[in-house]
Write a structure and sequence with these properties.
heterodimer, A: about 425 residues, alpha+beta, Alpha-Beta Plaits, B: about 425 residues, alpha/beta, Rossmann fold, 2 domains, about 15% strand, binds S-adenosylmethionine, Pep_chain_release_fac_I (chain A), protein biosynthesis (chain A), PCRF (chain A), Pep_chain_release_fac_I_sf (chain A), methylation (chain A)
Chain lengths: ~425, ~425
Amino acid sequence: MTSTTTPWICRGCLVRLARRPARHHVRFLTQTAAPESMPPALVARARAIAADHKQLTDKLSQGFDARAAKRVGEFSSILHALQKWDQANESVAELTSLIHDPTTDAELRELAADDLEASRTALADASQSLTTSLVPVHPFAHLPCLIEIRPGAGGSEAAIFAGDLLRMYQAFCNRNHVRNTLLKYENTNGTQEGGVPLSEAILEVASDGAYGIFRCEAGVHRVQRVPVTETKGRTHTSAASVLVLPSVEERSLGEEDVEDPESDYYIDPKEVKTEIMRARGAGGQHVNTTESAVRLTHLPTSISVSMQDSRSQPKNKEKAWRLLRSRLAQLRREKREEDMTAMRRSVVGVAKMGRGDKVRTYNWGQQRVTDHRSGTTVHDLDDVMAGGQTLDKVMESVRGWLMEKDVEALLAEESLTKK
Amino acid sequence: MPRLPTSLLRKARAIDPLLPRLLGVCRELRAAQNELRWLREYADKIARGRSGKAHRTLLRGMVENRASGKPLQYIVGTEYFGDLEIKCRPGVLIPRQETAASVTHLTHLLRSAQGLPDELRVLDLCTGTGCIPLLFKHEFSDAPHPVRLRLLGIDLSQEALDLAKQNLERLQEPDVDDESSVINFLQADVLKESWDEQTVERPCIQAALNFSRQPQFWDVLISNPPYISPSGYWTTTTRSVRGFEPKLALVPPASEGATDTDQGDTFYPRLLTIASECEAKIILLEVADMKQALRVANLARRLNTCTGIEIWRDQPDQKSGTEHQDGFPVIGTGNARSVLCWRGPGAAWLGKEDELNVMGAATDMPLSLQPQFTYPFVESSEDSRSSYLEDRTMHNHRPRGAYKLFEAGRQLVSQDSKKK
Ligand SMILES: C[S@@+](CC[C@H](N)C(=O)[O-])C[C@H]1O[C@@H](n2cnc3c(N)ncnc32)[C@H](O)[C@@H]1O
């Protein structure tokens, strides 16, 4: 972080988290070819865009055109990455031919071999950035997010583990100086003590870009350990589910999005039933109840949310609206994505990733954490649970995996359009 | 009250040993869990820095207190009223959410109104903690057209007035220069007529207004007066209300020959008269239930000074089908909670112009013949607004006597200060 004066905003931290060069990203390329090589279809795509770019800039030089200008702006990062990649390719080729040239003397060959190492790394990086620039950014990646954690199968052990996960994410956020607030916390006895079984928690990570960081955490997290409650020392397997929703705090979304019927977050107030729960009876001066719960039901989908954390009824209402918007937007997005994946899957089997799938295992006995999507295993379980750098590593690997899937999908689309 | 099932108590104990104590007053597990959490948060706040043991003792004490029926709001010292956290204290009624809902709804209707006067004047009779004027101001603060607000809360109880002033201080936003609004609190007896004998602690409204150089004329009159009849007090209020909240705030005083129902209604005729005298264009009165709402609405209809009357339920902002009772429109969902009356420009402010809904002569006239409600500026008068009602309503006695009272009041005070 640089000289940010407001410690909790820390956009920079997230940006840095997201951009940290991740070697894992390159891994998918190893399956097909040398690490520095790009799938030809992707390169072709980049070249086509570069050609478009040239046409557009020519057009711009003849007179201003707002739409052309905008697209030039969008393309420039691809163009830049392509130039870098061409350069790196060239120097690798040059060095390679130098090394293979029988007339090259031994000393020079040694030097060239040294340089080749460095150039290969540069090429790998360039491939990486070119790929990244081509893969469309997730439409909600820039938004803050809500992380919802609930115990799954496994009784109170699952509930305890759900609490562990919550603290893991909180610690992760705190270590990275990312502002986070508990929007909802319900354990079975209404307190926030550690080790007490959790029934539901919603953590809001309010910094921009949080969804891009945390969306890889969605899914079923499995735990294998001897529960504290277990007297015979047997290892149990339980699970907790994590749901990650892009969050629409009015601030990051802008009023017009919430008001815009085209937006995923739009809700027609006429379609929402508001119930204010209060003590039965005469009300008014006759009773002095503290009941402040609010329940909202979206009638067309019958999604219903209720909030009762605060003594202030308007606050509960506001929180409930925010949650309802997020849930609904998620639903709409999932629906759209389903349509998309159905199309993509017809070409490439993209593993679906959603609430139902087991994504990661935390094994206490072996002190290891394995992510089933990226295939990454780390051994410093304590550091993971403490939200430490080992967790960064795991999350990074999943983001890399997600990008691979995106690239595969992109290539699939490419070959579709060719047909 | 039915006994709590043992299974529920056992379940509560398993969650937290303190919970069963709260079930008696809360009745439901969820409610008890919430209250325990809020008490715990409050204990955390005030026991900061003290030992864990001190904290536990404190919390247990609070739970015992609550279990005895003491309202949570008195224990933690505040209640939410709309967005505002209002200070509460035994001796002064805890603000109710239903009141906040009506006041918020009225404010939202007015906030976007066209043609409001440059200074909108709001009188709140029986103000208690001062919650109504404070919320009105808060909800009005982002009105699209800048309007100056003058708000005045009146109560008989000195305890209530002290608390109202504390609330005003607490909620005053320090960085907003308060040119745009003034709030005052004043002691007066709503039930006292101007010809009754006046004292400094219990002047009638007119005398109090005069004495403190407040205007005679007000645009909006709001009141949540004591409205529970003696029998209602014993049958419909909860134990916690009876045991801990001031009866003065709930049950109007007895008067000779009055029935139980009459006693519950004591304040309304007086409030409607005051509304006429101060020429309120909008009147919002809280009531106990539909029966009382209809009695108050019919009384207002008989007085024939309003052009529109409707009844609001607990959530007046919630859409419901069109409903009428005795010819009065009923708005919203929940129990019947207040009666809204308007006249003159009040109709336009509320967006009710098209609904010439009743009642009395004014609306029988074609629109063009109805009085134009402008306020000619009279320089010599302390209050520059002249009265549109003056020449056409039943009350043609302006309380000139009030000036004498004003003088009497001054003398009383100067005598008082001499004594000291
Ligand atoms: C039901 S409480 C309403 C308080 C506050 N407006 C609220 O909504 O929370 C009624 C208030 O009327 C006051 N009161 C009772 N008799 C009165 C009287 N004769 N004149 C003025 N105020 C009176 C009580 O002190 C009490 O504060």
